[in-house]
Amino acid sequence: MVVASRRRGKKWWAAALWLAVASVALPVCAAPAGQDAATVARLASGIAWHRGGTVLQATALREGVVRIRIGRDGKLPEDASWAALAAARAASAPVSAVEQGDAVGFATGALTVTVARATGAVSVRDSAGHVLLRDLGAPFFAAPATGEGADGAQGFALVQAIPDDAHYFGLGDKFGPLDRLGRSYAMWNTDSYAYREGQDPLYKDIPFFIGYTGGVYWGLFVDNTWRLSFDFGHAVPGQLRIAAPGGPIDYYVMAGPDAKAVERRYAWLTGTPAMPPRWALGFQQSRWGYKTEADLRGVVERLRKERIPADAVWMDIDYQDHFRPFTVDAKAFPHFRQMVADFAAQGMHTVAITDLHVADLPHAGYAPYDEGMAQDRFVKQADGKPYVAPVWPGPTLFPEFTQAATRAWWGTLYRRFALEDGIAGFWNDMNEPAIFETASKTMPLDNRHRIDEPGFAPRTASHGEIHNVFGMLNHRATYEGLLAFKPGQRPFVMTRASYAGGQRYGVTWSGDNVSSWNHLKLTVPMLTSLGLGGFTFAGADIGGFAGIASPELLTRWYELAMFTPIARSHADPQSRPQEPWADGPQHEAIRRRYIEARYRLLPYNYALAEEAARTGVPMMRPLFMEFPQARIDGAPMDLNFTNDSEFMWGRALLVAPPPAPESPGAYQVILPPGGWYDYWSGRRLDAMRSLMTWGVGGQLIQGRDMDATTPHMVMVEPKLDQLPVYVRAGSIIPHQPPVQSTDEVPGGPLALDVYPGPDCEGVVYDDDGRSFGYRQGAYSRVALTCDLAADGRVTLRIGRQEGAYRPWWKRLRVVVHGLGKPPRGATLDGAAVDRIAYDAQAGTAAVEVPVQEAGGVLVIEPEAK
Predict the structure, then answer these.
(1) Active-site residue 429, yes or no?
(2) Cα–Cα distances in Å, from 791 out to 155, 556, 562, 759, 861?
(3) Topology annotation, domain 2-270
(4) Residue 512 falls in the annotated catalytic set
(5) Whether residue 607 has pLDDT greater than 50
C-alpha cells in the first residue's frame, strides 16, 4: 500500500507533461522573435544546424540509413544506445551537398535529407523522389518537469505529414490489425493478463515501423526508452505525431524501396536475431500446472507413446520452492536432475522458468539474495534503500541490470541448472517488470538505476527512463550468462518483455493471450508485427493462455501454430487440458498430423531460421514483403480484402486461415500474382479467378489476361482438418522423412519438391543445430534453381555445396509437380536416370539421385510428341 500511495502522489507530473507534449496542436514553427539566425555547418557525412539553443545533426551512416539527432541547450544528446549497435552508430557514408532555396542538406545514393534553414524541419526523400518523411515544423520542447521523480525531464513532440496513400506497420506486439494508420500507441512494457483487442500497451515496445507511400517502403526507428507515443493520424488526421515525456530525440530513417531492404537495414543497425538451437523449431509442450515430477514425466511419456513429435517440455513456477527463482521443490520434484537426464535420453529438452525477481529472504541460505545484497546488485528507491515489492515469492528485490557487473553476476546464478542439471533452455517471465498490489503494475518511476555500462557515461537514471529496457537487459543477462558457461553452444532464452535490439538475445512470445476465436485470428498480425521489429523467433500460446478453449478452437490453433516460428502449447491452471491428445482421438489425429507436417518441413523451416539470423528478414512475413508491387485499390495486398489473416511462411508458402475462424461459411482466399499450387495435394491451381483491381495511379485494370500481374481469388469451404496452404509457383521446398524429435536422424532421402514457375529457386541449409560452428564454415548450403521450357522440359540445377558440414542425407528424392502427362525419362548430368515414377492423379514425377558435392543438373524430359 505504501508503494501504491507513493505512485499516486507522483503521477501528476508525468500526466501533465504527457498532455502538454502529446495533445497540443503543433503549428509549423517559426523562430521566436529576436532569436538568432540559424547556422549550418557541413560535416563529412552530413550537416549540423543550430539556432538559439537547438542543435540538429543529420548524418549518413550508410547509403540507405541516416541518423537525425536533436538537442537542447546547445548540445546533442549522449551518443549511447541499448539498441543501436556501436559499430553502426560509428559508421559513415559519403554524401553530396544539396541546396534547395530555403533548405540545405545532403544526398546519398538512396536518400536525400534536407533541413529548413528557418525552422530546422527535416524532410527525407528516396532516390526516386518519394517523400518518406516531412516535418510539419520544428520539434516542440516541453519545459523541464518538476516534482517527485521528474528528474528535470524535458518532453518533446515531432509532427510529420502523413501522405494520402500512407500505411504503417510494426511497433512490436500490438494486438489489432496489421496497419497502424488511424490509431495511436504507447511504448510502455506492461503486464497484460488476458488482454483484449485494442488494449495498449502490452509487453514489448519496439519503436520501429515500416511506412508505405507511393508504392515504396521505408523505415523509422526512434531510439528513446521513455514512454514514447506514436499517433498515426488518430488525434489529427494527416499528422504522424511522435512524443515522449523525456529522453533524446535520436532517430534513424531507412530506405527501401521494398520491405526486405528495410528489414536488412534495421538488422544492420540493431542486430540480427540470435540463431536458436534446431530443437527450438520443434513442437514444445508447457502448462502452468505441472505441479509434480510425476505430472511432467506423464506428459513426456504420453507424447512418446502417442508418437506425437515433440522437442521440449516446459516448467512454470510450480517446480520452484515457494516460487523462488533458482530453487527446486525437492518434495514435488525429488529426482529433478535424473528427470531432466531421462528426458534428454528421449530427445526431449527441458526448459525452466527463472523470473527476474529475487526473494527478500535474509538469513535463509538463499544464494541469489545473499550474493546480491553483499555485492549491492539491486535496484534502489528514490531514498537510496533497496526497492522491495510483492511478486510470486512475496517480497522481492530486482537486479540492477543496467550494470554490466550485475548482469555478469546474474548469469552465474544459472551454473547449477545449466551445467549440473542439464536444463536446455530458460524462460524470463514477469520482466516488464511486473509488480503486484499496485495500480501501475510496475515500479515507481522515481526508482533509481545506476548505469555502469561500456558506451555510456556512468550516471543514475530514473525508472521512467529504464522501464522499457529492463526486460531486455534481463534477457541479455541470461543469454550472456549461458554463453559464459557454454561458449560453444547456442543459448535458448525466451523473454516476455523487451525493446528494440532484444532480438539479439533469443526468442519471445505474445504473452498471456486468451482462448478465443478473435485471439486466434489476431495471432497472425501480432506475430508478423513482432517479426518486422526483429523478433522473428516468436510464438503465441497454442489454445490461448487464459480461458477455456473449445475442442474446435484448440485444433484450429494447433494447425496455425505449426506455421509460426515457435510452436508452444501453454495454458494457465484454470484452463482445460490443451495437450494434443485432449478432446479425443479425432482431434488428436488432426493435431498430430499437423505437428508431423511441421517436422517434415523442418529443412525448409531451418533454412528460413538461418536466413532470418543472417539477414533480419523474418520467417513469418506479410504479403507485401514478398509481393511489394501487388496491390488492391492501390494499397498493399494485406489490407484491403476480406481475409487479412493471410501471411507468407518464407518465400514459398502462403498460409490462409479463415478470416472468421469460428464460421462454417465459405470464404475468399486472395493469392498474389503468379501461379500457385495446393501444398497438401501438390496440384496446380487452375480454377483461380483474377480480381478486378485498381492499379497504381488509379487506372482500372480489367479482369482479363491478368494471371501474371494481378491477384487471384479462390473460394474455400472450411473444414476442421484443413488449413489452406499454397505454394508459390517457382519454388523448391525441401522435406525430410518423419521423426519424433529434431535430434533423431531421419531415415531415407531428402525430398526436394519442385513447383515450376518464374524465378524458380530454393535452398537447402544445414549445420549441427547446436553450436556456433556455422560461423567458422561448419555448415552446408546448396542453392537450387529450376527452369520450365516451352516444350515442358523441367531442369533442376543443384548447386555446389557451400561450407564444410556434411548433412545427414546421402540421396535426394526430387518430386516435380504440375505435370499433366508422364515424362519420357530423366537425366542427371546427361546420364539417364534408371527409374522415374509418375503419379497421374497428383500430376507429379519423382526420381531419386545421389548427392554430389559438385551439384548437378537434373532434367525431366517431356513426353514425346
Answers:
(1) yes
(2) 68, 42, 38, 18, 9
(3) Immunoglobulin-like (2.60.40)
(4) yes
(5) yes
